[in-house]
Amino acid sequence: MLVNDTLWPPIQLITLATGIPGTAGSVNNYNSHSALKALNESGFDTFERVEYAGSGSVVVRESRKRTTVNQNQ
After folding, report:
1. Taking the alpha carbons of 53, 45, 17, 19 in that order, is the dihedral positive or negative?
2. Which of 30, 43, 59, 72 could be bridged to 51 by S-S, CB 3.0 to 4.6 A?
3. Average pLDDT, stretch 18-29?
4. What domain range includes position 8?
5. Cβ–Cβ contacts within 10 Å for residue 35, how many?
6. Within a domain: residue 73?
7. How far is the C-alpha of 31 from the C-alpha of 70, rounded, in Å?
8. Which residues lie across from 2 on neighbouring strands?
9. What is the band of 71 on the pLDDT scale with cuts at 50, 70, 90?
10. Mean pLDDT, rounded, for 6-20
11. How far is it, in rounded angstroms, from Cα 14 to Cα 55?
């Protein structure tokens, strides 16, 4: 996200705003998708429109999906 002409990762913004780290030891409190969702729901504009499935999970467009490579080929 762009804040005062500086690009910030969504997790870092949520951490700075709430004081809750994205990860603490081996515990994941939230990830980039949930941070973007919280920022969008709070009225902040992000660079990409985030779409949600009926279940509330983030819909990843085909163009953004990562491909996996089988190392055993």
Report:
1. positive
2. 59
3. 79
4. 2-64
5. 22
6. no
7. 26
8. 7
9. low
10. 85
11. 23
